[in-house]
């Protein structure tokens, strides 16, 4: 069982990095935050504020799609399953590669591209519920999923209200470590400047 500290901090780091790499999306998030808070950069977000951060949530979700905090998970097959004409017998240990699952081009057009619009309501309609599982799925789903998203929104919105992020590293130059938590080998470098 994970407690959420490492997974949540990883998700926050990846989201801020991707927003630094894509200033057009960062600007859309800032516009959303300005609509919620106006010029106020100090007042903590309320639950209503957090729930109103719909575009930021899309950014977090697409970040988790590209860089799921837990890049793989193990499950025991509960009953015989036929996959492509081959039977996987009950009791088989299966490894689910979340990192690869989230890059299915039939589900996510341009799967390597960061695109928060993947999670706009009209683009999620009809999507299989297990096509996107950064928090696992079914009976072993992460019980802290909703709290984690709210925590990520609280931290990211607080930072983006005050600071602008610019990428120092290019995403394609990163080396990933697919350990228990998906991390960049040498960290994520960004330039942070006060927002006007």
TrEMBL record:
Q: Which cofactor does it need?
A: heme
Per the record, membrane topology reads: Peripheral membrane protein
Specify which residues bind heme according to the UniProt entry for this protein: 142
What SUPFAM superfamilies is this protein classified in?
Cytochrome P450
Which superkingdom is the protein from?
Answer: Eukaryota
Oxidoreductase as a keyword of this entry, yes or no, is yes
Which cellular component, as a GO term, is one annotated location?
Answer: endoplasmic reticulum membrane
Purpose: May be involved in the metabolism of insect hormones and in the breakdown of synthetic insecticides.
The entry's family comment says: Belongs to the cytochrome P450 family.
Name used for this protein in its record: Cytochrome P450 4c3
Organism, scientific name? Drosophila rhopaloa
Q: Which gene encodes it?
A: LOC108053443
